[in-house]
Structures are given as C-alpha cells and as structure tokens.
Amino acid sequence: MSGPVLTTGTAPGGRRSGSRGAAIGRRIGIGLMHGLWKPRVLGAWRVPAQGPVILAGNHSHAIDGPMLMGTAPRPVHFLIKKEAFVGPLDPFLRGIGQLKVDRAMADRSAITKALAVLEDGGVLGIFPEGTRGDGDFTALRAGLAYFAVRSGAPIVPVAVLGSTDRSGRVIPALPALRSRIDVVFGNAFEAGDGSGRRTRATLDAATQRIQGRLTTHLHEARRLTERDDPAA
User: Fold this and answer.
1) Which of 81, 169, 184, 199 is the one with CA 20 to 30 A from 33?
2) Contact at 8 Å (CB) between 148 and 54?
3) Residues 6 or more apart from 29 whose CB is under 8 A from it?
4) What distances in angstroms separate CA 192 from CA 4, 145, 148, 198, one per listed residue?
5) Which pLDDT value is given to residue 9?
C-alpha cells in the first residue's frame, strides 16, 4: 500500500504531512483489530484531545502496536525497530506515519522526527521496554524520559492485556481470533521535575518516576480487567 511519507516538512494548514499518514494508519488499525479480535477499550477519554502526547505501552506481543493504533482516540506515530522496515512493509509503514529507529545506536534521525511529531501537537507511541518481553515495565530504556522531558509532553500509560493468551489459537503467532483484548489507558502525567534540565541525573530520575507510574497503572489495569496473570 502506498501513502504519504512522514517528513519534517509542513503541510498546508500547519499540519506536518506525516499526520495524514498516521490518520490512514489509524483507520486501517480500527478495521483490522476490531475485525480480527474484540478489543475492550477502557479510559480512552484520558488521552488529551489535542496537543502533544506520548503513549507509553507495555509490549509482550507483535500485535500490541497495531492494537494501540486501532484503539487510541487519536492517530499515533510509533517508533518501530528498523528491522521491521523490510520489503513491502517499508513503504507501508512509512506511508502510515510510523518512524524507523535503529535501537543499536542513538538514532538522531529518528529522534528528530519523533520530536517533530510532538512539536506539531501529535501523538508519539513508545514501548519503553525497547523490545517484546514480559510486558511488565521492569526494565525501561531512557528514550521515553528524554522525549517527555525535552518536549514537555504528558505521558499516558497504556496496558494491553490478553494478547499473549495461548488458548484457542488457530495461528500460533497470533492470539485466538475474536478473543478479547483489553486496552486500558491511564491518567496523563508529567515526567519532568519542572526544572527543564536534561542532565543524565535528571533523566535517570525521570525514568524512575515513569517506571513507578507505568507499573502502578499496569497493576491497576490487571485488577480492573481481572487479568491477574500477565499472560492471561
């Protein structure tokens, strides 16, 4: 599928051109995620209706990104590992406003584009654990703190629960078709300490604050959805 490519240029009316692609991606996500599974979305009203926002989600399954794209109330630009941009997926992901990042280095191009999304008042999606794992926020990379402190954008924690349930699968790599996936949005919060500093100590402290808020939200989301088992 071809589409508009995210650039740092500004489209007519002051909107960066990538916002159109992310809006297309959201429509695709809505169709696929609601067509293949049964998302139950809780707390979407907590995502600010306008202005820059960072969605920080737990990550335990490959469908977590598309699920958030299809359930978030606003179009989302996700930072996605460069390894996913292969073959026809490369122009497709670029066309729907997603951002390629090299996780093995400080990818300045990805950083610039991600900050541009926030400067334009858009929504940036990050899996702060950096890769798929247990999805419990036990090990966060510093990137989320940097983007939050640098941009001043609030963080909205998101818990995606049920994507790792192995019961009833027809396709081993995917949750059982038409199974329920819970997506729980938490309260927005500021990561910085109000000083505006971006020193290593400040970012480390912000990362600790973020981890505490994300972990608390995940526990509350599990209690609310009655999914006490992380893989349930």
Assistant:
1) 81
2) yes
3) 66, 67, 68, 69, 70, 71
4) 34, 8, 7, 9
5) 41
